[in-house]
Design goal:
Organism: Leptotrichia shahii
Distance between the termini: 7 Å
CATH architecture: Alpha-Beta Barrel
CATH class: Alpha Beta
Protein name: Radical SAM protein
Number of strands: 8
Shape: globular
Order of helices and strands: EEHEHEHEHHEHEHE
Strand content: 15-25%
Radius of gyration: 17 Å
Number of helices: 7
CATH superfamily: Aldolase class I
């Protein structure tokens, strides 16, 4: 279990993996991060304060992730993040927020008014059928929704190389992600005990034919392994 790391390439920043309450949705077929949730606020405080104590402010940028959304962090954790940001002169702050919180993001921006808050969200794929029926992440993307997402979120998270996906779908996801969002994080799926399985043929194709074309692009981060950012629960 690693809860603090430093990302030094492309978009240098510190990153912490914190504990939160249960994910508001919690039904994604591929997610085992919800196992990190807790309703014990003392445990949450202990774990989160320890991780945040390691923040140095080296780059002035901090990414905060948890097994859900920023809205599932308790108040003392949010207060500690704000204090750390002030003490360490953090100028840019990243949080994750599920689609269902789309209309509440300004609450976080206002709370962290001294930082530029950038939001990330897990779209996983632009393919509505695959997202809703296979991945069981049940929100529908259309032009109106996409325009709203583009205006509210800085970073889009995609997941690739799962069984049932196609090469065409993956290429389309990457192209649409680049067209619509300022930052893109592409994660090659790693088997994690859930019902979703990794497609090794797609992985081999992606690594040999596609990865070299995108790995140097400044606004795209590609996680070949889910530990590549240095924080993980597995």
């Amino acid at each position: 279990m690693i809860r603090y790391s430093v990302i030094k390439e492309k978009n240098p920043r510190e990153i912490v993996l914190l504990k939160g309450f249960s994910c508001a949705y919690g039904k994604c077929a591929f997610c085992n991060y919800i196992l990190d949730n807790t309703n014990d606020e003392e445990e949450m405080k202990k774990v989160n304060f320890e991780a945040l104590s390691r923040v140095t402010g080296e780059y002035g940028v901090l990414e905060v992730i948890n097994s859900g959304s920023v809205f599932e962090l308790n108040s003392v954790t949010l207060e500690r993040i704000r204090k750390i940001c002030k003490e360490k002169n953090i100028k840019i702050l990243y949080f994750e927020a599920y689609f269902g919180y789309l209309n509440r993001l300004n609450e976080i921006r206002e709370y962290f008014s001294e930082q530029e808050v950038r939001f990330a969200f897990g779209l996983e794929t632009f393919d509505n059928d695959y997202r809703t029926k296979v991945l069981k992440k049940k929100f529908i993307l259309n032009e109106r929704v996409l325009e709203k997402l583009k205006s509210e979120y800085q970073m889009c998270l995609l997941m690739i190389c799962t069984k049932g996906q196609t090469k065409e779908q993956i290429l389309n996801d990457i192209e649409k992600g680049m067209e619509n969002f300022k930052e893109l994080v592409i994660s090659v799926f790693v088997n994690n005990g859930t019902e979703i399985e990794r497609d090794e043929e797609l992985v081999a194709w992606f690594l040999t034919e596609i990865y070299p074309k995108y790995k140097e692009k400044q606004n795209i981060e590609i996680l070949i392994d889910n530990k590549d950012f240095g924080v993980y629960v597995q």
